[in-house]
Model the fold of this input.
Amino acid sequence: MTLLKDQACFGGRQQTYSHHAHTLSCDMQFAVFLPPKIQLSPAPVIYWLTASINPRISLAAQAGIQRIAADLGIVIVMPDNRPRGAQVPDLPEDSLDLEAGFYLNATQSPWSSHYKMYDYIHQELPTLIKDYFNVTGKQSLMGHAMGGHGALTIAIKHPSDYCSVSAFAPMCHPSKHPWCQKVLSQFLGSRDIAWLNYDAVELLKNNPASVHKLPILIDQGDQDALYPLQLGTDALINVCKQFDIKAQINIQTGYDHSLYFVASFIESHLRFHYAALN
Amino acid sequence: MTLLKDQACFGGRQQTYSHHAHTLSCDMQFAVFLPPKIQLSPAPVIYWLTASINPRISLAAQAGIQRIAADLGIVIVMPDNRPRGAQVPDLPEDSLDLEAGFYLNATQSPWSSHYKMYDYIHQELPTLIKDYFNVTGKQSLMGHAMGGHGALTIAIKHPSDYCSVSAFAPMCHPSKHPWCQKVLSQFLGSRDIAWLNYDAVELLKNNPASVHKLPILIDQGDQDALYPLQLGTDALINVCKQFDIKAQINIQTGYDHSLYFVASFIESHLRFHYAALN
Done:
């Protein structure tokens, strides 16, 4: 690991590291916020999945999360959202969002040699964090939009590895969305069971008991241009009702998909995770 | 005034407007945060002078200021920091910082027809805000770096127009700094009395009694690459000591010049202004 940036922030440190990601066969960067208390005792970790940290400052670093994390004594890890580098192929432009690694393990050439964001977020990065920082081993997942999809799908499949999961405006049902279908077919091949493995609604439908001990919190703005059809929010609400899944889903009147929406509710997410992590 | 953006944020509204600025002979944009309470009763205003709001998201919108302003019931006006448009000349690149209008009234051609940021911030914009929004008429100034220079110089010259002034890492003594001297000579001509009129240290030295009722708060990181020589912080501290000026100047150990520094201390600045505005 190479420390690229190290800045004082709310009495703690906001840092950026680069490292070679074996899972992705490329070098990756991530940002991390270390609360002041980590100098005295181990702290729990939230993985905060949003837009890229590289090259532009990410949503993660802007939303005031550090203030609350400093106060509550939580480490925030802010990974990049896709593999990067000259050797990493880009998706064709008509498949949309080159920024989005979709938090899956690609099986199709040429993507399968690098696009393993699922394993990177769930396995490689937590191992690195536990080796390198003074953390308790307790961890939670949080994400925005496509990062919300990543947080939900990873936590639903590994509920015993995470104390809680939360999402802002998550993509809930990508296998039913034309725009996502294009990307899923590039990464995973034609429509099959593999798509359902990366779809929060389908995962809950197939195994609703998996999350009966996992605290789930979702905030969604009703003025979000992607809500509800493109995000599949209604399908998520329905599957939770149908199987009596105790997710807390808040529809926030007047809010959109932006930084201002995330900033307005991030304190409640961190307090939700804090209760589960301690 | 044309409303360009309008987003929910901490129960209030984060908006962007464009308008024709007569003072600057060009169209300008500014951002404004309206706290929830403004729907019920008039609110005081803080002018927050930082980097550009256009085209990139500014520091102003990132630092969590809206959370505290919503809570305290303060309107935050975030102006652009220079005139813009095809007809507005750019400074030569070797004069540095094309982003910086220096918050002065230029007297030299070709700058003098547009670079009147001093009058824009002190006169035109407050008149517009008072006409358009439900505000009390009480106002304060706050700024970062060059914006801190703007806030200090304007408030020192018009202490009865502002309830308080604060700055993060302000440029305190530009007339003594080679890099600023280049810009000042472009805007104001060769070194003369006009330079001293836009220099917080010189203004205080010449009329220390002007600020004896004006609350002043400054935070400065000791790891800021511009501290102390380029910012002239020591000269400001000395002039305050010499003339018994009651400015509160905090040197913050470990902090740099960045968003993280501003975010870490912005709550204390808003609470400082709140006490003076109410």
